[in-house]
Amino acid sequence: MQNIFITGCSTGIGLQTAITLEKSGYKVYASARKEEDVQKLKELGFDALKVDVTIKEDISKALEYILDQDKKLDAIFNNAGYGQPGAVEDISVEALKEQFETNLFGLHEATTQAMKIFRKQGFGKVIQHSSVLGIISLKFRGAYNASKYAIEGLADTMRLEVANSDIYISTVNTGPVTSKFRENALKKFNKNVDIENSHFSTIYKEELKLRLENEKDNTPFNLPATSVANVVLKIMESQKPKPRYYVTKATYILGFAKRVLSTSLLDKLLNRL
C-alpha cells in the first residue's frame, strides 16, 4: 500500500484530499497544526499527526513516525499555507516573514527532509501546492503572490535536479476553490494591516474586507475542494506524474494569458479582476 504525508489537513483542500486518498486505498498520514484539529482527524479514522510546518522538529518527528510504521514514504503533499491580504506598501517585513515561514520555508523544510528519505530509498513524489497566483499576480495579494512565486522557483529547479531518477516533483496550481482560505485571510488582514491609515483605506473597507467577510463565494470558476483532491489522486496513481497540474478554468485562462500577452496588456487585464 502506498502512503502519503499531507500537511494542513484541518479543513478544506487538505482534509478533502486526505478523505479522497484514504477512500481510494492509500495510507494517509494527515497532519494539522492545532491539537483540536488533530483529534478531529483521529475521530475520522486517520493516523493524524500534530505538525506545525514552521517547527522543524514537528516535521522530523512526523517523518520518523511514518518510517517506523511503514519503513518507507511514497509521497508528500505540501498543502499547509494561508494568504496575507493587503497592498504591498502596507505589508510589514514581519508580516512578510510570517507569510514565508509557513508558505515557503515550512514547505521547503518538509520537502528537504522528505528528499533525504526519497534519495535513500530511490523513489518518491513531492507534490507542491502552489496557486494561479504563482503564475500571475493580483492586487492586494502581494505577500501571498511572492510566496507562491518562490515555490514555483524551487519546484522548477528541483525537477531539473531529480531528472533521470524515480523521484518526481509536481506543482499544483489551484484557482478559486471552496475552503476556509478567506476566513483565515481575514484574520491576518485585521491583524497585520493598518486599515485606517492606509492609502487604500476606502477600498479595503468597501471592497476587500466585505469580500473576505462574505460567507458566499461568488468567485467565477470556483470549484469544490474535491477538484484538487482528485488531482492529487491522479498524481498518486501515475507512475510518471506530470510536472504541473492546473485546477479550475481560471488557472488555464490566466496561465494562457501570461504566456501570450505582453506585460502591459496582462496588467490591464489583471487590473480588472
Outline the structure in words.
Strand 5 (123-129), helix 5 (142-161) and strand 6 (166-174) form a beta-alpha-beta unit. With 273 residues, the chain is of the alpha/beta class. The protein has helices spanning 12-23, 35-43, 56-70, 93-121, 142-161, 181-192, 201-213, 226-237, 249-260, 263-270, and strands at residues 3-6, 27-32, 47-50, 75-78, 123-129, 166-174, 244-247. The protein is built from ten helices and seven strands. It has one domain: NAD(P)-binding Rossmann-like Domain (Rossmann fold, 3-Layer(aba) Sandwich), CATH 3.40.50. The mean pLDDT is 95. The protein has a seven-stranded parallel beta sheet with strand order 3-2-1-4-5-6-7, with helices on both faces. The chain starts with a strand and ends with a helix. It is 52% helix and 14% strand.
Q: What characteristics describe this protein?
A:
single chain; 273 residues; alpha/beta; Rossmann fold; seven-stranded parallel beta sheet; 10 helices; 52% helix; 14% strand; globular
How much beta, percentage-wise?
5-15%
CATH H-level superfamily:
NAD(P)-binding Rossmann-like Domain
Structural class: alpha/beta
Cα-based radius of gyration, to the nearest Å: 19 Å
How many helical elements? 10
CATH architectural arrangement: 3-Layer(aba) Sandwich
Which percent bin holds the helix content?
Answer: 40-55%
Number of domains: 1
CATH fold group: Rossmann fold
Low-pLDDT ranges: none
Q: Globular, elongated, flat, extended or rod-shaped: what is the shape?
A: globular
CATH class annotation: Alpha Beta
Largest sheet: 7 strands, parallel
Mean pLDDT across all amino acids? 95
Q: Tell me the number of strands.
A: 7
Helix and strand run:
EHEHEHEHEHEHHHEHH
Q: How would you write the strand order of the largest sheet?
A: 3-2-1-4-5-6-7
Could you tell me how far the N terminus lies from the C terminus, measured between alpha carbons in angstroms?
A: 44 Å
